[in-house]
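Handoff note, outgoing to incoming analyst
You'll be picking up this chain. Sequence as last confirmed:
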Amino acid sequence: MKRYFCQRIICSQNETVLNTVLEIDDNGIISRLIPFKDLTVETSSTIALNGIIAPEIFSIETRNERRPENTKHTENFNYQRLDTENDLQLSANNGKPLILDCGSELVSTVNSILQKHKDILSNIDLFEVIKAFTVYPAVALNQENEIKQGNPIKLTLWPSPESLKQNKNTGIQFRII
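Most recent structure output, in case you need it:
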């Protein structure tokens, strides 16, 4: 079993929890989300993480290549490919949730593209950027990618808004937990 404490966890498109311990069993299944204030005993094996935990990166382009029967359902989203030379159209989203797709789910590729677009992405709410890579693409394809009890899931760790303000030159970078 693994336990992670984090100040913020993006569970789904409508739920972000604060100051919570995330417990994962040996099979990679989320067994519990425990508000830190409700813990009676804190084990020494809990790993404290600074930043934001979110579901895994979800690339519509990559998932559609893996499963050709999937069709893109991005009409209700502001879908943007970041791995092309096209300019980002972030201002004309018409209130639609943003999906950012790097055409890859590899950490190194996505982080490289994040670095390339750091000036534009710094003008968008950090939580919306994270959801644009993790939550909204799964919603568009009607696939499960939520942090909730009973779900098998891979997790990502993103920087906190505070750390981004302190390290403006680094841009947004994430890692797999």
